[in-house]
Amino acid sequence: MFGHTAAEALGQSLDIIVPERHRARHWEGWNKVMQTGVTKYGHDVLAVPAIRKDGQRISIEFNVTLVQAEGGSVLGAAAVIQDVSARWERDKAVKARVAALEKQVAELEKGVPAAKAQTKGS
Predict the structure, then answer these.
(1) What Rg value do the Cα atoms of the chain yield, rounded?
(2) pLDDT > 70: percent of the chain
């Protein structure tokens, strides 16, 4: 999904997939979860941008499961990730089209006399 071989990824920081401008926020959240042992993303899906080895931006969604020691301390986390770039692009295109159509409707309504506009909605 990210274009890295296992050998390239093993032992590396998540910075290899987290876009640079999101890293501070990512690590802040990571550290909080590791300290508290609490994440809402075990149930809620987190949708974020990510980067591939070739620099391409993709959109991903994932859930997190905390890996805990017998005593309950957090050892790390595991995530199930899916690439939702195609859906994100479709949604973006639909939103843009809806906004354009709403603008056209608003412009058309400006040209309709108030009495006709009220009759039209009745």
Answers:
(1) 23
(2) 92
Residues shown for the chain:
122
Contact 84/62 with Cβ under 8 angstroms?
Answer: no
How far apart are alpha carbons 62 and 52 in whole angstroms?
A: 16
Three-state SS across the chain?
CCCCCHHHHCCCCHHHCCCHHHHHHHHHHHHHHHHHCCCHHHCCCEEEEEECCCCCEEEEEEEEEEEECCCCCEEEEEEEEEECHHHHHHHHHHHHHHHHHHHHHHHHHHCCCHHHHHHHHC
d(CA 14, CA 103): 42
- Per the listing, tokens 């590791």 go with 34
Does pTM top 0.85 for this prediction?
no
Chain centroid offset of residue 36 CA? 23
pLDDT tens digits along 85-105: 999 889 999 999 999 999 989
